[in-house]
Amino acid sequence: MEGMEQQIGMLVDNILGDYRREGRIDQKNTVNQLDKEAIIEIVHKLQQMIFPGYFKNKKYRVYTVKNNLSMLLEDVLFHLSHQVEIVFSNIPEYSSCGRSELTELARSRCVAFLEKIPAVRQIIETDVQAAYDGDPAAYNTDEIIFSYPGLYAIMVNRLAHELHLLSVPLIPRIMTEYAHGVTGIDIHPGATIGKYFFIDHGTGIVIGETTVIGNNVKVYQGVTLGALSTKGGQTLKNRKRHPTIEDNVTIYSGASILGGETVIGAGAVIGGNAFITSSIPAGTRVSIKNQELSYEAGGTKLHSMEIRQDGTW
User: Fold this and answer.
1) 163 and 199 share a domain?
2) What is the pTM of this model?
3) Is residue 21 part of a domain?
């Protein structure tokens, strides 16, 4: 036991010595730091506001919708304001602000955010409808609300996007990266997404910061709406690096659409595994050239046939 204590002491001294380098990953100010778990809890409470009656906090007995909503709003406003204030206090832009001024600024941004809840609910309702209309496997809209990862990722993104528009940094990204971890769907809070957006299956989808998506767009798993190159790093900040997807576009699984100048025209259909780096006219169908399948059994070639696309996609 004594030998282990000595070893632990040596390891502690060794790691503390590394802390003293004060590198970029060192942060010893634990008091004035964001609480990631608090932000995730805020996401859960916002979900309860978006879908009243579907998701409840079982720790409390609340018998009216008004009382429940009042409790949720008070809780979210208090905790979110605190987290926003912490973020602002670490930004040079607000370094000259006093504590009371920062507190009021954070609170006003959070009130502005919560004022957007009715509008966010209305657009999420269109996403629920798009999922139901677009998926013959959906039993009803309750199934979509309770279980579809695509809807959850969209919901979190729409909420985070409103904070992003209010120039609240960091917190929106923590929200969407939490949803990313839960669903496998990576949507940057800066992305602009229209009504009736449907993500089918969803795993592996990436939607970049400056992506613009129109109304009635359907996206399958494994799709990337990304940048052509990120070699420029921070020099590319504030440039449009990701594509624009116009209304009524369907993008099938595994497709990659890259570049800030790339526009997918209204009504286009992008087939699976397509790799697109230039604009596509409205109404165009894009597909990979038909593959040929070969069949063999015991070393003997039986037959081969081409994959032919039917008219259902």
Assistant:
1) no
2) 0.86
3) no
**Residue 294 located in a structural domain:** no
Identify the burial level of 197 via C-beta atoms within 10 angstroms of its C-beta, where 0-12 means exposed, 13-18 middle and 19 or more buried. Answer: buried
* Residue 44 structural domain: 30-184
176, 63: one domain: yes
Angle at the Cα of 200 from the Cα atoms of 197 and 202, rounded to 5 degrees: 100
pLDDT in tens, 134-169: 999 999 999 999 999 999 999 999 999 999 999 999
One DSSP character per residue, 143-193 reads HHHHH-HHHHHHHHHHHHHHHHHTT--SHHHHHHHHHHHHHS-EE-TT-EE
Amino acid symbol at 309: Q
For residues 71 and 95, state if they share a domain: yes
Coil, strand or helix at 58: coil
Q: How far apart are CA 313 and CA 308, in angstroms?
A: 12
Residues 111 and 243 reside in one and the same domain: no
pLDDT (tens digit per residue) in 225-236: 999 876 666 666
- 163, burial (CB in 10 Å: exposed 0-12, middle 13-18, buried 19+): buried
- Locate 278 and state its tokens: 């230039």
